[in-house]
Specification:
The protein is of the alpha/beta class and 537 residues long. It is built from 15 helices and 18 strands. It binds 1-deoxynojirimycin (NOJ).
Length: 537
């Protein structure tokens, strides 16, 4: 038995509640909708997907300028999504099935309608003024420095009534909290406690490395890029040294409740993800390298090795291919081979050393939705169309079946259903043994049965072809070999070194068992787009 905590061994499934399942016909997904689909996620048998935890994107009260990432009450439920009673039922029903609950805390900024900001904004003398980042104007009324908003335009908003600027890293409706203010910080820590007391198992922390900005508010130096935000090196508006103290404090609160987790969303690269998840700071931090990776086994291997090296055994990796902010990976890698590649990608994600994070819909190979200009909802999509379409395409509703409304809603869905929902949906794949969904299910349940896939070392096997990725997972008592053919032709792969001696037992293949070729000392034969897992006897 592995002694690792659940958040290292388990599989996490992200739900964007707006788009998952709508129980009341208003076109928007809700908590009761999630409850109604828990058996699909894990009913304790391999008929279900088998995930160990769900991360729910925000469902707190919010005016919705950034679709819930602008929170106006951290300790409530937006009526759009249900009630606190629904939430308690969700926790109880999920726990009954062995599914943990991870909430999405957006603590870098609040909504401009949060009562804290209303007070802060009311007067320069207000006791909560310093809970946010207020500054006098620069010369001739200019903004205090050159910082840019991630969503476009300047990151400073002039408040004519109290004659100061406030800072907002995202929309002007998302003012940034001042984490240096002890009272604000205490209030934020109370938010963690509030949800931990209600039985929550962990948190995804939105833009966790932006909590502190340079205390002298120095200008960021320039960089090459297209959008204003990209034309700066962000050395002063994030990644400040004070973060480490805040992470320790958060970790302290979590640990006082037992085995609770947090995963940080990191703005930036793998080096920061490794740094912040090392030495017991944040339990996990997202490394988004995979989300920008081309379909190349060498590119994936390079980034896996770089992450392992950056973590240097001091932190635990986690991997992600899709989420609610980026184009779905089935479409990124897809084209003609979409389903075959979706399976190969799944086999990789679920057999690497590290916690896999799935994004709802990827288990059916869901494609990026097509959004007409008039239907665009996402603020950066509205602002930058046609150069950037925004994030609506990866947020379209989950198609559960081929009926009108796709089993998602009986009403008008808040974003259009994918045009192919009659073909690509859960019901169509559920009983098809060759579907993407069936393959995800088999992989996840195999992971549970093979501790080596959860905890084993990751040992790449150098191959002479650039068309495949091969590695061992190894513990003292178990060895697995994973071989992934990324392309459409069969491969005779030669290894540079021999495999450990022994005979091999096939545990899973994307293809019929009959044609599978066991690895031989120096090589393996793979069918087109085949992903296989062998176990050494
Ligand atoms: C990252 C979230 O994933 C994204 O959806 C949101 O818009 C920004 N943070 C701002 O909260």
């Amino acid at each position: 038995m592995s002694t690792k905590p659940w958040w290292q061994t388990g599989v996490v499934y992200q739900i964007y509640p707006r788009s998952f399942a709508d129980s009341d016909g208003d076109g928007t997904g809700d908590l009761r909708g999630v409850i109604s689909r828990l058996d699909y996620l894990n009913d304790g048998t391999p008929r279900s997907l088998g995930v160990d935890a769900i991360w729910l994107s925000p469902f707190f009260p919010s005016p919705g300028f950034d679709f819930g990432y602008d929170v106006s009450d951290y300790c409530g439920i937006d009526p759009l999504f249900g009630t606190m009673k629904d939430f308690d039922t969700l926790v109880a029903e999920a726990h009954r099935r062995g599914i943990r609950i991870i909430l999405d805390l957006v603590l870098n900024h609040t909504s401009h309608l949060h009562p804290w900001f209303a007070e802060s904004r009311s007067a320069q003398e207000n006791p909560k003024r310093d809970w946010y980042i207020w500054q006098d104007p620069g010369r001739f009324g200019a903004a205090p420095n050159n910082w840019q908003s991630v969503f476009g335009g300047k990151a400073w908003k002039w408040d004519a009534r109290t004659r100061q600027y406030y800072f907002h890293m995202f929309l002007e409706q998302q003012p940034d909290l001042n984490w240096r203010n002890p009272n604000a910080r205490k209030a934020v820590m109370d938010v963690f406690r509030f949800w931990l007391d209600r039985g929550v198992d962990g948190f995804r922390l939105d833009v966790v490395n932006a909590y502190f900005k340079d205390s002298m508010l120095r200008n960021n130096p320039p960089a090459l890029g297209i959008r204003g935000y990209e034309r700066q090196r962000h050395i002063y508006d994030k990644d400040q040294p004070e973060l480490l103290g805040a992470y320790r404090e958060i970790r302290g609160v979590l640990d006082s409740y037992g085995e609770r987790m947090a995963v940080g969303e990191i703005m930036g690269g793998m080096a920061e993800a490794a740094r912040y998840s090392s030495d017991g700071l944040l339990p996990l931090a997202f490394n988004f390298e995979f989300t920008g990776q081309r379909w190349s086994p060498q590119a994936f291997l390079k980034s896996i090795m770089a992450f392992e090296q950056a973590l240097a055994g001091k932190g635990w990796p986690c991997y992600v291919l899709s989420n609610h902010d980026i184009v779905r990976h089935a479409s990124r890698y897809g084209g003609r081979w979409l389903e075959a590649r979706a399976k190969v990608a799944a086999a990789m994600l679920l057999t690497l050393r590290g916690t896999p994070f799935l994004y709802h819909g990827e288990e059916i190979g869901m494609r990026e939705g097509k959004i007409a200009r008039a239907d665009i909802q996402d603020p950066p999509g509205k602002r930058y169309w046609p150069f950037y379409m925004g994030r609506d395409g990866c947020r379209t509703p989950i198609p559960w079946n081929a009926f009108p409304g796709a089993g998602f809603t009986t009403g008008d869905p808040w974003l259009p259903l994918n045009p192919d929902f009659r073909k690509v949906n859960v019901a169509a794949q559920r009983d098809d043994p060759d579907s993407v969904l069936s393959f995800y299910r088999k992989l996840i349940w195999l992971r549970k049965k093979m501790p080596v896939l959860q905890a084993g070392d990751f040992i790449p096997i150098p191959v002479k072809s650039g068309r495949a990725l091969v590695y061992l997972r190894e513990t003292k008592s178990q060895v697995a070999l994973v071989a992934l053919n990324f392309f459409e032709s069969a491969l005779d792969l030669a290894f540079r070194e021999p495999l450990p001696a022994g005979s091999w037992r096939l545990r899973l293949s994307t293809h019929p068992v009959e044609g599978a070729q066991p690895p031989l000392g120096y090589g393996i034969r793979l069918r087109p787009h085949e992903a296989v897992i062998w176990e050494k006897r």
